[in-house]
Amino acid sequence: MSQRARFEAQLNAIWYGQQPVPWVLRWLAVIYAWILACRRWLYRTGIKRASRLPVPVLVIGNITVGGTGKTPLTAWLATELARRGWRPGIVSRGYGGSETSTMMLPLDADPAQFGDEPVWLMRAAKCPVAIGRRRADAGRLLIDRIHCDVILCDDGLQHWSLARDIEVLVVDGERRFGNELLLPAGPLREPPSRAERVDFVVVNGSAAAPAEIAMTVDAHRLVAINDLTLAKSIADFRGQPVHAVAGIGNPERFFRMLEQKGMQVIRHPFPDHHHFRRSDFEFGTSLPIVMTEKDAVKCACLGLPDAYMVPIDVDLPIQFADQLNRQLRQFQESAA
């Protein structure tokens, strides 16, 4: 385990476990809260203004640090909106990539340049994706070049410079908001009360409250990362030891899913958006390597033998997509 991964594990033990919060983290959280309040005040008073795009904007995000399932949800929403006649485009920060300008992803986009999540989104949702520090500029690029008529902003809940019509908050059903403290004393980017001001709350895993929308993620097959035509049933790996690799926000969720499928999991957690090298996979044994789809987009060029990715299937109530479609159509008609 890398030094960064160990540090993240220590923080998670404080945020989601029973370990006491050090006083220095509490003081830093007070400073963070003050900065957050000042930033919110600048937008509320109009000193800073949010950019409004000429098409409806749907923002998907969370208020906690780490993985909650917002990126798979973004891909699901883009697919469902396309089925209902929309031309969706996705904008992202492109975190983890080297590109600093506003750009639309080419079909052969390199995750080292554009980031792993944008590349995965483009492939999974089969729709255009643009990255940029300013999501509004990325959105305009998609509107001007591809004529997208709805923009989805992945991980954009705190990107207040982009005006939005609908906000979707994604919550980890198992960990929820942890100790409910702001960073770095807790995992929260914003206070828990922020959940009351969004349009929809989607809960990934565990039971959803009556006002929330339940989202489940499952897996049924493994695909060789060096040959996408080679797929195996996940049941074929039942009882088999595997090296499980995850460089995502919540690696433990992935590891537990594999264990629930009957695999004997040897855990190899890496920091989120980790840039993998061949040496990262020198485990000393020649067992199969199993990783997430997001990690696989960065590892396909490494020539790893007996390495597989786990495509996930996202399930949500179809009524959720229908309701979003109706609301977006209303925004579209009122702007016409």
From TrEMBL:
Reaction equation(s) it catalyzes: a lipid A disaccharide + ATP = a lipid IVA + ADP + H(+)
InterPro entries xrefs: LpxK, P-loop_NTPase
GO molecular function: ATP binding; lipid-A 4'-kinase activity
GO biological process, one term: lipid A biosynthetic process
Pathway info: Glycolipid biosynthesis; lipid IV(A) biosynthesis; lipid IV(A) from (3R)-3-hydroxytetradecanoyl-[acyl-carrier-protein] and UDP-N-acetyl-alpha-D-glucosamine: step 6/6
Domain of life: Bacteria
Residues noted as binding ATP in the record, renumbered to the chain: T64, V65, G66, G67, T68, G69, K70, T71
Record-annotated membrane-spanning stretches: 24-42
EC code(s) of this entry: 2.7.1.130
Job of this protein: Transfers the gamma-phosphate of ATP to the 4'-position of a tetraacyldisaccharide 1-phosphate intermediate (termed DS-1-P) to form tetraacyldisaccharide 1,4'-bis-phosphate (lipid IVA).
Source organism of the structure: Ahniella affigens
Keyword line: ATP-binding, Kinase, Lipid A biosynthesis, Lipid biosynthesis, Lipid metabolism, Membrane, Nucleotide-binding, Transferase, Transmembrane, Transmembrane helix
Stated family: Belongs to the LpxK family.
CDD domains recorded: SIMIBI
Any single Gene Ontology cellular-component annotation: plasma membrane
Pfam families listed in its UniProt record: LpxK
Gene designation per UniProt: lpxK
UniProt protein name: Tetraacyldisaccharide 4'-kinase
Keyword Cytoplasm: no
Secreted found in the keyword field: no
